[in-house]
Amino acid sequence: MDRIIFHIDVNSAYLSWSAIDLLQANPDSVDIRTIPAIIGGNRKTRHGIVLAKSLSAKNIYHIHTAEPVANALKKCPTLTIVPPDHDSYSRHSKQFVGFLRSLTSEIEQVSVDECYLDYTTIASRFSSPEEGAAYIRNYIYSHFGFTVNVGISSNKVLAKMASDFTKPDRVHTLWKSEIQTKMWPLPVSELFYVGHASLNKLRKLGIHTIGELAATDPGILQAHMKSQGLLIWQYANGIDETAVIDTPPPAKGYGNSLTTPQDVTEPGIAKQYLLSLSETIAARLRADSVKIGVVSISLRDWDLRFYGHQITLSVPTDLTMEIYHAACQCLSELWDGTPLRHLGIHTSRVTTDSFRQMQL
Question: What is the pTM of this model?
Answer without folding.
Answer: 0.77
